[in-house]
Amino acid sequence: MVFESDPKQKTLKSVIKRRIGNRVGAAFALLLLLIWSLINSEVRVTSQQFTKSLSEWCHSLEDFAIGQVFADNEQAVYAKVDQFNEDHPKIHLSWVKTEAPATEATLNWSLPLSWTYTYPLRLVGGKYFGKFIVQGSYLADRAFLNELILRVSLLIIISSMIFWCLYPLWNKIPEELIFKPIDNLINTFKDQTTNLPNLNSKDQPEELKIIKHKILDLIAKEKESIKAEAMNKVRSKLAHDLKSPLEVINALERNKTRAEVSWRVKTMALLRMAKIAQDLLVPNSESKNDISDVLVADTLSVIISEKQVLYADRNARLELAVPAELEGTFARINPFSFQRALSNIIDNAFDALDKADSLISVILKKIDKNLIEIEIHDNGKGISEERLSSVGAIGITDKKGGHGLGLSQAQEAMAEASGSFHITSKVGQGTSVFLGLPICPPPIWFTNSIKVQDSTKFVILDDDPSVHQLWKDHLVGYEIVHHHVYDRPIFEKFSADQSNFFLVDYQFDHGETTGLDVIRTHNLNERSILVTSYFSDQEVQRKAVEIKAKILPKHLIKNLALDKSPIKPDLTPDIVLIDDVALTASMWNWDAEEVKAQILWFPNKETFLSAAVPKNVPICIDFELIGTNGCEVAIDLAAQGYSQLHLVTGTPKENLPVLPSVIKSVRGKGFPREILDRSPT
């Protein structure tokens, strides 16, 4: 589990800092106010003393000034004032005669440190004698200035000491004793690591050390528990997945009378076991990269055959119903996950049977043109409504010794393929499991029809006599040549006859030559079909695409459609795609059918040039090709006279290099209806 903090939420650190900070700040402000009050009081006392001294000086001159005025000798007053100023050079005294002098002495301050003292002379006989004005500066009074500097310095020093004492209470002490240990504990949960720094720091409280050690012990135990649980899941999954194919192989070995079908069932069981081993050795190998085009009816048939072998001794019927129109229907899904899901669901159905006339039916249905549904129904004991809500959860099972993995894996497989999973059940009546899958276009290598004429002759190459009989029954009215072994000189003759159509097995006569080798050697890709049970082998598919051969799954022989519509003698495609990914061509074919368009697909430039396509046909070139890119291919084709060149890519246009002028347009990987100027009919 990963713990994440929300930056919008209050953190313990911010709350503690704010509350401690508020209180420390308030205490600091109160102490500063107290110190300032004390210093201000001292300054006021000093100022009062200074005012008293000035008042005494003025009072000593007052009687002299009044007496001289009564004697009509004001010049003596001025002389006395001048003498006073000479005796006191740091201040200046002046006598100002006014009609209405101030009634009381005042001391006024002026910026920065100047002062003015006004001393009114007393009233005698109703006569005004003026006032004394004394002016000076504190800067001139060194004693007063020194005292002021001393007091301010004391204020700064005391304030700094208070700040030095209080600041750690707000920041350093909580940081060291609270915040860092808490952060360390949080990181213990986030990182889940035992390599935490300063775990045994001597400055950390012993209680926090104990908490840390306890947390680390819990994390270590949790990791061991998770590891053990993961190993148990792997063991359970391995035992669960291997059980079915192993039991099938054992049943086939015991029942030799079913040898005619056992080879394919055994092969599929072995492939499933190989896939299980791959998943075990390479984690996450069963991913979306393994999703491919799966022939749904064939997969159902294989699993049904497997279960019929496995449960041959059970008094129960297992039936498969597939409409003919859905025999060639494909869905994109992980084939091994799909097989595993079907196998698990049918196993569960057999486990639920409790009647003498037990029946399990598997029905493939078409819901609409884009969706198919597989219904697996049993008439067993059913599931209660309460139990039904927990079906599919890992570890939930009714089976003795079960692991509760089957239905959960089926749900995952359907979700991975953008499909659906649904269960209905009634106690005593049975259970139905519904698997919904989107229909995908047939892959480029697949075919289930060929164009024929009355003059068409068929050459069958297969070492299995039963296959020859199937073709004989299906191709009634046509001339057929049967060959059980490949003889090159004979096939040289047959290939020269353009009326011959070849139906070739992939493996025959236990030799190294394959059916694809025969098709390539005699250039039969336009007049042949590879008929094989190995159609799901991706290597076989890749080689068939390389030589532009078509594949018919062998079990669909009876469904091969014989199209007798006239064959165009000189078929010109409506559009060409050059792309080394066959899936794109498959998707385009699906859309092209709607607009009645003919597409030719080539995996590279070389195969395209060998086909002699008309110069005026629109050509769409994938940008990312093996060993080259679409721009280089377009330049080469333009030099040979092709003019309708378009680039198709999933790369954003701004990330592409400078495009050559021969490219008419750049578009995505979807089918280019606008180039054809057609709409669905």
Describe the structure.
This protein is of the alpha/beta class and 681 residues long. It folds into four domains: 12-167, no CATH class; 240-440, Histidine kinase-like ATPase, C-terminal domain (Heat Shock Protein 90, 2-Layer Sandwich); 449-563, 3-Layer(aba) Sandwich (Rossmann fold), CATH 3.40.50.2300; 575-676, Response regulator (Rossmann fold, 3-Layer(aba) Sandwich), CATH 3.40.50.2300. It contains 18 helices and 25 strands. The strands form six sheets. Strands 5, 6, 7, 8, 9, 10 and 11 form a seven-stranded mixed sheet that branches. Strand 16 (528-532), helix 14 and strand 17 form a beta-alpha-beta unit. Helix 5 packs antiparallel against helix 6 and helix 6 (259-281) crosses helix 7. It is elongated, with a radius of gyration of 51 Å. Residues 1-5 and 400-404 have low confidence and may be disordered.
